[in-house]
Amino acid sequence: MFNSIVNCGTTVVSPLSLLNPSTGVQRLLAGFIVPMVLGMAGTAFGQSGPQIVSVTPTNGAVDVATNSTIVILFDRDMDTTVIPIGTISGAFIGNFEIQPSTVFFTGSWGLDKRTLTLQSAAALPFNTTISWTLNPPGGTLFSPLASAANEPVETVSGSFQTGANVAAGPAPKVESVIPANGAVNVSPNSELVIMFDLAMDTNVILNASFPPAFVGNYEMQPGTISFSFQGSWGADARTLTFKPFGPLPQNTLVNWTLNPAGTATPLKSAAGQPLLTTNGSFRILANTGGNTNEVCNPDPTNLGYYGLTKSFAHTQISATEVISTAPVPGAFTALVQNHFTSPAPVTNASLTLPNETEATLTNQFGNFLHAFYPASEAQVDPAYPPGTYTLRMKLSGGQEQVIPMNMPPTMASIPMIQNYAEAQAINTTESFTLRWYPFTPLPANAYITLFITDEFGNTIFQAPNVCLPRELLPSDTSVVIPAHYFKPGQRYNCTLAFGLNFYHSTNAVPQMQGNAVIVRSTTFTLEAAGGGGVVTLAPATFLTHRLLPNGNPEMTMSGTPGESYTVQRSSAVTGAAWVNVGSVTMDVTGTATFEDTTEPLLFPAFYRVLGEQP
Question: Structure pTM?
Answer without folding.
Answer: 0.57
